[in-house]
Amino acid sequence: MDMDDMDMTMDMGNSTMAPMKMDPMWMWFHTDIDDMVLFHFWQIHDVGTMIYSCAIILLAGVLLEFLKLARHLVDKRFPHRAGSSYAEKFFSVGHLLQTALFGVQMVWSYLCMLVFMTFSVWLGASLIIGIVLGFFLFGAKLPSH
C-alpha cells in the first residue's frame, strides 16, 4: 500500500495542555554546562553547580566500590557452616544481608549508569575517577580472582 501522498499530520491546535519546556536529551558526548542529572530538581546551569555535581558523582563512584567491599565483608563475617542445609543457608542472616546489599548495589549501579548516559564528559569523567579511586581505596581488601 503506497502511503507517500497521504497527510499523516494531526492538528493539535485546540489542545488544553500547556506547552512544556523540554530539556535536551543528548545522544553524543558533550561538554555543555546546561544539563539535568537523573531528576528534574538536579539542574546544572553554571560552573559552580557542575563542580558540585561532579563531586557528588565522584563520591557515588567511590560508594559503588565500597558496596562491593561491604558484600565481601558480610560474606567473611557470616560464613556458611559446613554441612548446613540449603534452608539454613537460605534463611541465614548472612544471606539476607547479602541479598539486601546486592539489591542496593544493583540500584546504585544503574543510577551510576544513568548518570554516565547523560553523555556529559564532565559527569562521566567524575564517575570513572570515583570508581577508580574507590577501587584504589577498597580493592586491595577484596580477594583476587
UniProtKB/TrEMBL annotation:
Instruction: Give the protein name, as stated in the record.
Output: Copper transport protein
What family does the entry list?
Answer: Belongs to the copper transporter (Ctr) (TC 1.A.56) family. SLC31A subfamily.
Q: Which UniProt keywords apply?
A: Copper, Copper transport, Ion transport, Membrane, Transmembrane, Transmembrane helix, Transport
The question of whether Transport is a record keyword is answered with: yes
**Per its UniProt record, what Pfam families does this chain match?**
Ctr
MF terms from GO for this chain are: copper ion transmembrane transporter activity
Q: Which InterPro entries is this protein grouped with?
A: Cop_transporter
TM segments? 50-69, 90-108, 114-138
Source taxon at top rank: Eukaryota
Cellular compartment(s): Membrane
Q: How does it sit in the membrane?
A: Multi-pass membrane protein
Q: Would the keyword GTP-binding be found if you checked this record's keyword annotation? A: no
Cellular-component GO terms for this entry: membrane
